[in-house]
UniProtKB/TrEMBL annotation:
InterPro entries: Fe/Mn_Superoxide_Dismutase (IPR050265), Mn/Fe_SOD (IPR001189), Mn/Fe_SOD_BS (IPR019833), Mn/Fe_SOD_C (IPR019832), Mn/Fe_SOD_N (IPR019831), Mn/Fe_SOD_N_sf (IPR036324), SOD_C_sf (IPR036314). Its EC number is 1.15.1.1. Residues 43-124 form the Manganese/iron superoxide dismutase N-terminal domain. It is an enzyme of class 1 (oxidoreductase). GO terms for cellular component: mitochondrial matrix. This is Superoxide dismutase.
Amino acid sequence: MSHDKCEVLKWGRVAQPARCLCRASRSSARFVAPLGCLVSRQKHTLPDLPYDYAALEPHINAEIMQLHHSKHHATYVNNLNVVEEKYKEALAKGDVTTQVSLQPALKFNGGGHINHSIFWTNLSPNGGGEPKGELMEAIKRDFGSFTNFKEKLTAVSVGVQGSGWGWLGYNKEQGRLQIAACANQDPLQGTTGLIPLLGIDVWEHAYYLQYKNVRPDYLKAIWNVINWENVSSRYATCKK
Ligand SMILES: [Fe+2]
């Protein structure tokens, strides 16, 4: 298979350099490409976490991580596969009405899979602190200072009404970083065009078991586990 036909890692570059997993077995795909190879119609699979469920404690506890990954993310993956099968059938039949009716479910479950695949790699038990190098320079250029950036992304994330995500994204046309909020599981790039660098999940399932209704406390804690190496690597990649 020609690897240049694979839409691998377009959305969710994970903890390793980009690589096509067309020929990798699912069982060995620890860092599986979040969207797999669409050309081969391979079913999407739940990527393993690059750390243990308890690894982010005390900032995010093991119970949250286990449910979030093994139940919530897994459900998005399973539903995405079901929707894609139906979509494929509708395409084959030329049934445009059904194709259109499936789009909300595709957006929700596809977005859920994309977003969480990014989110896990944006976190690390060795995270926290501040970014370095080009990313830090860009943050200072576009937000004035790292403190300003942190405050702004925190405020935007806390302010999401209901369920959604706060994002740091890259505006490729303008060559600058931007902060954005997305509702529900709307994927950042698919809905705004910004390339996702850092996503903060502010659905209640991401924090309620530990922080109850106090979303701002979760937002304070999450900065201690942000994997700046991963965010920097995404930034370097999308600038190419
Ligand atoms: Fe989530």
